[in-house]
Amino acid sequence: MLSLGTTPLANALLREEDLDTPEPRYPLDLVFCTACSLVQIIETVAPEALFRDYAYFSSFSDSMPRHALELVTRLVRERGLGSQSLALEVASNDGYLLQFYRQAGVPVLGIEPARNIARVAIEERGIPTLTEFFNEELARDLASSGQRADVVHANNVLAHVADLNGFVRGIRTVLKDDGTALIEVPYLGEMIPGLAFDTIYHEHLCYFSLTALSKLFARNGLALVDVEQIPLHGGSLLLTARRDAARGSIAASVAALLDDEAARGLTSFSYYRDFAPRVRAWREQFRGFLHKLKGDGASLAAYGAAAKGATLLGYAGVGRELLDFVVDRSTYKQGRYMPGVRLPIRAPEALLEKMPTAVVLLTWNFKEEILAQQAEYVRRGGRFIVPVPEVAFA
Known about the structure:
Elements: E1 2-7, E2 26-32, E3 39-41, H1 47-51, H2 63-79, E4 87-90, H3 98-103, E5 108-111, H4 115-125, E6 129-130, H5 136-144, E7 149-155, H6 164-174, E8 175-186, H7 188-191, E9 206-207, H8 210-219, E10 223-230, E11 236-242, H9 252-264, H10 275-295, E12 300-303, H11 307-316, E13 326-327, E14 345-346, H12 350-354, E15 358-361, H13 367-373, H14 375-379, E16 383-386, E17 392-393
Parallel strand pairs: 4-5, 4-7, 5-6, 7-8, 12-13, 12-15, 13-14, 15-16
Antiparallel strand pairs: 1-2, 2-3, 3-9, 8-11, 10-11, 16-17
Helix pairs in contact: 5-6
C-alpha cells in the first residue's frame, strides 16, 4: 500500500566519525493482510541491531511521565495494589512509568533490552530491570520463579515485535489469574486519515486496528475487555486485557470500535488505496513550502531528532541544503547526526542562539508541549511549521 524506498534505520544516530561511512539501508514497504486485517512492513531487521543501544528515553518528554502517573494512580486505586502486588512493564525504558508504582509502595520489575537505557533505570531510579527481550520463554521463567504480575504494562512495544503470538502468550503467562494487562499502541484508524506516514520505520513492524488486535488476542488466550482512544502519539489505543473474561465484563467500547472500523472500511484494502497518492502529494507540498521560504531568504531548522523525523525528512529528500540543524531535548542525542540526512543535533538553546526564521516541528505529536517550552523563541519572532497532515505554520 506504500513504499518509502530503501532507508537507513531511523534511530541509528551518527557520530562525527561515521559521516564518511555509508549507512546500511533496508526496504521500507507497507502491506495489508486481507486475511487478518494487519498492516505491517515486510522487512524484519534483527532486534539486536535495533534495540540493544537505543536513542529514545521516555523521560525527556513531559507528556509521557504525566500520562504514566495518571495511569498508575488509576490502577493502584482500582486494583487495590500494595506491597504484596507486582507491577511489571515490558519495554520499561528508563523507568518513567514504574517509578510511580515504586513511589506508591508497589514492587516493580522492568524488562528492557536496551542496555544503555536499562542502566539509567537501575542506577538513577532504582528500578529492578532485566536487560532482556520479552518473549514466551522469559515469561515462563518468570512465572515458574513466582514472579507473576497483578498488572503488566506494554506501552508502544507491540509494534516492535516479530513474534506477535508468542509475545501475547507471554503476557498471558506472566499475568496472575486475576491480573490485568494494559497495552498501548498507535492507532491505525488515526494514522491513515491523519497521513502519519512518518510513524513508519523499521522498528515498527506492525500498525494496528482493533480488528487485527482482537483476533491476535483471542488466538493467544487473552480476552480484550476494554479499549480507550487516547491522544498520545497523534492517536493511540489503550487496551485492557485479562486471562479470562466473565460474561458481561467486556466493555461496550470494544464492540463499538469494532463496528466503527467495519463501517469505515478498515478491514478492506480499499480503505488504504489512496494512502500512497496522498503521501506523494504531501511530499511535493512540503518540499515546495520549504523551497519557497528558503528562496525568500529564510533560515530553517527542525525540532525533534526522533525516528519519525528521520522517516519524514528522508522520504521528502530534505536535508542540509534546506535545514541548518535539528534540536532535541535529549542529551543522549545532542552532538550526533540524523540518519540519512546527516543533520547535526543540538540542544534546544540553539534556537535562541541562531534564531532561524522557522523551525519544522518533526515531533508534531508533542506540538502543544514543545510550543509551550519554546515560547521565548516564538516571542522573538520565530515560527514553527507543522508538517503533518497539512504543511502549515503553527
